[in-house]
Amino acid sequence: MRASAVVAVALLLAGCATPRVNNKLATFDGTSGYRYDTLSKDGTGDDLFVILAFSGGGTRAAAFSYGVMEALRDARHTTNRPLLDDVDVISSVSGGSFTAAYDALFRDAMFTDQGREVYLHEKIHPQDQLVRRALWPASWFKLLSRDYDRINLAADLYDETIFEGKTFAALMGKKPYLILNATDMSLGQRFEFTQDQFDLLCSDLSSVKVASGVAASSAFPGLLSPLTLESFAAEGCSYREPLWLTNAKSPDNPARRWKRGLDAASYQDEKADRRFIHLLDGGLADNIGLRGPYVALTSNDSGWGVIQKINQGVISRVVVVTANAKTKHKTAWDQRRDAPGLLSVLGFVTSGPMDNYSFDSVQLVTDYFDRLRESFQDFTACKTLLEARCPGATLPGLARPADFHAIEISFEGFRGADDRVRRCLEELPTTFKLSRDQVELLRRAAYVLVTTSASFNAAMKAIDARWTPRDAAIDPALVARACAATTSGTR
């Protein structure tokens, strides 16, 4: 009886100690909270707009995106200004969200020698800690609560060991604008941890732990349970539908925009009865973090729309850098008559389509930039012809186009003589437990890929004609050590 009483009290305390993930928004105003327009300006203006997109992939993605940021920190232009300081938005999913969120909170410490050591070799390896915590008796009681699951256990661990209890309120007024992307299970669409998204739930993002956003963004199906948010839309918060949403729902719109508008409106739709929102890994909807930026670049259906600022002449240069840490494991499937087993099939289903979708996202942005350049060339040719044949006539239009640069940093950048490095990086597992040498190789590989990228150097030349890239290389001894630890066999 005494033991039963202790268990009962422990269960009661565990249930009472479980806070809700998100709270109700008192009153909607559409201007306060964590939004792009509330961020402070650094005196440089918006002429240069830089977007980073970080893919998923566990520690592999976290370390790779860290190396990309190091390269941007060392890429200095004009008055010795680091390009990293010009970054306006970081959009991330899954493993990339660890680096994106850590940078947004702790950049001053992140790139010091001590900060690099702590982050790369201690903080982004939570796998063993998560297993140990799950085995603690105290965690058993929590996990028996209906309001506490594996995802909450992960969020608590990340909160204590990585993000130091910070909420989104700590990001208010600071650049870059952080967009952590998860996947709404009911819609199969992106769910952003931004106040514009939380407005639809009549919820206040500022009180949400950053660790909860990262946990939702990296909640890989089966390994972690979905993160559940409460919607307070039925209680009301004086929400007023923004004009873009009203316009987007018009049936006259292209199907993609119309569907996106309907999905957003469903959070406020009483008939939909969406009282709880269940979120999984952001990679299920967008494994490279580019869908949100693509919407902002091509339409006004975003709280931080870029296209309007371009049309107004406020932004004249746009640089999009994507860190894509996708894998390509060797298999022996084609060597056997027997069909792949269940685990192999599940691995393919959860990763193969993601990689293809990521490629399409990168191509969408690249093609869009190409179309804009071609359109302006056509406009310029028509204007020249009109002025030659009809002196005094004018052709309305933009005085000059924005200068667009889309840069993808991926393992495929290692080719030819560096093919061994590419194969090694592609075969690193999607896990939160990599060796020190593997982490260092990922970091260094990203740095080299950025500094040797032709598209990156073209972008830097456009920003500063005096730009010259740094010399960068990978120590062959590091490659030997890191790649010796990779799985050389097939699955």
Order of helices and strands: HEEHEEEHHHHHEEHEHEHHEHHEHEHHHH
**Outline, from the CA principal axes?**
globular
Helical stretch count? Answer: 18
The low-confidence parts are 5-17, 487-491
What portion of residues is helical?
40-55%
Structure description:
The chain has 491 residues and is of the alpha/beta class. It is built from 18 helices and 12 strands. Strands 2, 5, 6, 7, 9, 10, 11 and 12 form an 8-stranded mixed beta sheet that branches. Strands 1-8 form a two-stranded antiparallel sheet. Strands 3-4 form a two-stranded antiparallel ribbon. A hairpin with a 3-residue loop joins strand 3 and strand 4 (81-82). The longest helix is centred in the last third of the chain and has 48 residues, at 342-389. 40% of the residues are buried. The model is unreliable at 5-17 and 487-491 (pLDDT under 50).
Summary, kept brief:
This protein is an alpha/beta fold.
Kindly list the characteristics that best describe this protein:
alpha/beta; about 45% helix; disordered C terminus; about 500 residues
Please describe the topology of this protein.
Elements: H1 2-16, E1 23-24, E2 48-54, H2 58-74, E3 76-77, E4 81-82, E5 87-93, H3 95-110, H4 113-123, H5 127-135, H6 137-143, H7 150-161, E6 177-184, E7 189-192, H8 195-199, E8 203-204, H9 210-217, E9 227-230, H10 243-248, H11 255-265, E10 276-281, H12 291-298, H13 307-311, E11 317-324, H14 342-389, E12 403-410, H15 419-426, H16 436-451, H17 454-463, H18 476-484
Parallel strand pairs: 2-5, 2-11, 5-6, 11-12
Antiparallel strand pairs: 1-8, 3-4, 6-7, 6-10, 9-10
Helix pairs in contact: 2-3, 2-16, 5-7, 7-9, 16-18
